[in-house]
Amino acid sequence: MVKDPAAESAASHELLTAKGPRRASAAVPCVLGKAQPLSTDGRKDVPAGIGLGLRYDLARELIDRAPSEIAWVELHPENYLRRGGAYRAILDEARERWPIVTHGLTLCLGNESEPSGASLAETKNFLQSVGTRWHSEHLCFGGDDQSLVHDLLPLPFTEEALSIVVTRFNRMRDAIDCEFAFENVSYYAPQSDDGLDEARFCAEILERTDGKILLDVNNVFVNSKNFSFDPRAYIDLIPTERIVQLHVAGHFIRPDGVRIDTHGEQICRDVFELLEYTLERTGPIPTLLERDNNIPPLDELLREVQALQTIYERATKRPREPKEPSTHSTRLA
Ligand SMILES: [Fe+2]
To answer: All domains of the chain, ordered by start, with CATH?
Structure first.
């Protein structure tokens, strides 16, 4: 497993992020929050536009300033479940200000074991309480109900793994009673030659589940560089009507050229370009800036959000051409 050295020094009060576990602080101030009613159906619409992850390190300033650049926020239920005090206050105040989208970290879709009824019921109740329009989990192995590996480990792109993922996806979607999506992850171990390529693996899950995908554009790019495939051909293979949300983030380049998905750097130009290519095809769908490590001052993050907004508007205002189903391989010659 490759570690980002910068991640080790990042201070955070969150138990978990998409880039690994975090310490919970014993010095969190206790602030009582008051739940506010949601819209009539208990859910708020998520506007198209740029969202930001509701990280504890940023949350207080973000809530107090409520910058106009941020259209919605994403949070991990695991960081709020069974927690009161300041966490409850942040959650309640965020609900008043923005639509919330949830993104799970622990019920990974490649886990072979059956998810426990208690975990699913707790998740369902939480999702309803924050009024998310959809929920997502990672397309990876993350442990089982008894133990977590605290990492997002890759799956083999095989028929056996497909069967596990499809079964678990359907089980979880039924249990949480909510629109459900999986997210493509970054990985660093090469696949065997006898499986599908990654894009076809994702497309096959969508086909067999009739589900949705949270497409992480940075993960597509990082994997394409590390394993030599065409990221645009990957995007072309994913049915655009199934893409419910996008993620974009920065990554780190090691001296040996390997790209590491850290969520700890600024977004690079190549990822901006791939995002624009994607948005030209999807039209305006919610796009999240993920920043979990080396979190800069809010004003600096907002400048990156503004850069995203410029690309978002440019890409989604262009007339879209009807897309032919792709039959070509993502493999580069
Ligand atoms: Fe992501």
So the answer is: 11-317 (3.20.20.150)
